[in-house]
């Protein structure tokens, strides 16, 4: 496979995930690293044989076919617009932006663009297998979903003010996953939330524990369970209930070895964080982006999916504020 040059914008937490995946992919070559922090950019570039560059010069290079946007959330939309206007294929971490009005106003510029949004759960092999079996009718007609997304521990308080809050930063993954599995758009949202994990999160105006109920026009239900602290690892589960049975995607453990003796049962813990749990999903996502870049696939999670998830996230916030369901 011919290797196409790409630029990475952002060498932070998500850049550390996507940059190496791009550098190691047989169809991609990481040519530039762009980051306002010179040391971070230089470290990433040096490790993967890339060059440090300014954004304008990277986008002006006709040899750059794609751009990976892993910058801070408030920069996602601006960087995506710049890359699309330069004619590049774009992979952008979620969310597109925290401001729904800005996202909607920009949407026409993305018509026809090769744009993949970072909803990585769609590329998890366990969740993909569940979806295939669901679509094959193994559980009959889908009636309800239960999604569990529990972080192992709360983020540092300094993260909260710029995160967009629990629903736009965290639950948005589950809202996209629900849309992907339900097969129709939710028409009603009800959320209830509390601050039970860290009082500082509440002082900063956010919540850390929530339950959300989605309802579709045909009556399908989806319950989403979120917390910033599980205390036992990165808890990621799906239960899909149908007219003939159920499908479940359980937690993934560090290994499959189980000890059974007179002391009881001992098994390996579940994965401790998102980077380990979704390692295969992130690799699959970048492989899909490579296929999009090479003209062999159409993006499975596009701009419209980002808009739809953001609409639901804002409905969750409104429901918490009013204590009532929000009809869409």
UniProtKB/TrEMBL annotation:
Alphabetized, the UniProt keywords read: Oxidoreductase
Domain (Gfo/Idh/MocA-like oxidoreductase N-terminal): give its ranges.
5-104
* GO molecular function term, any single one: nucleotide binding
Keyword Glycosyltransferase on entry: no
Domain GFO/IDH/MocA-like oxidoreductase per the UniProt entry, residue ranges: 127-247
Q: Name one Pfam family in it.
A: GFO_IDH_MocA
An example GO BP is:
NADPH regeneration
**One GO location term (cellular component):** cytoplasm
Question: Does Membrane appear among the keywords?
Answer: no
Q: Which Gene3D superfamilies match?
A: Dihydrodipicolinate Reductase, domain 2 (3.30.360.10), NAD(P)-binding Rossmann-like Domain (3.40.50.720)
Instruction: Say which family it is in.
Output: Belongs to the Gfo/Idh/MocA family.
For this entry, the protein name equals Myo-inositol 2-dehydrogenase
- What is the originating organism of this protein? Pseudoxanthomonas indica
